[in-house]
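Posting here for the record, re: calcium ion.
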Amino acid sequence: MQNGSGKEILVVEDEPRIAKLISDGLIAAGLKVRVCGDGEEALQLTTAHKFAAAVLDIMLPGRDGLSVLRELRKRSDGLPVILLTARGGLEDRLTGLDAGADDYLTKPFSVEELVARLRALWRRVEGKAPVVRQHEDVTLDLVTHKVVRAGQPVELTGREYDLLELLMRSPGRVFTRTELCEQVWDYHFDPGTNVVDVCIQRLRRKLDDGHDEKLIRTVRGVGYSLKAG
Ligand code: CA
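Prediction output follows.
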């Protein structure tokens, strides 16, 4: 399998010949492509759909690429963007990077180079996201959801995992039952229910039993926390 296969790229370019060239090259590299030739439409598409990256031409009719990029960043959209600039457009390139472009290519360019730049971009983005979370002797794999304590696998249900993952984000912080309920079960806390306490008990049994160090702490009358290191 090629790196990045199956990812969908938004190509914003109004010249059909260039758009097709890019699109064909990306598809040949195993990527999916959505082409649009208009800045406003590009903004609508990125609202409705999550793309793996956008290839954004600066010269577009109506709303140009730089304006699209600024709007994306104003919305805090972290969509990776590669700008396409005209030869000699140094000012555009600088403005583009300043406006939040991740990279740029100067026309004419080879599609192979574009693909290589996209892959480099994803490696950078993925490198920033943590893959495991560690606290004391517990390791959470955030991709596979495998949990290990002191080298031994801990089998958790989905809810138990979510609960532990939340507690492990801030060891020492006390989470109220309301917070846990709303974040893990995604519904409003009903003071009459003991769903949180039951799940904590099961998690505690699986995680702490047989270990001298008990990680899950009850804060009487308030909620629960993970023992800080
Ligand atoms: Ca253009």
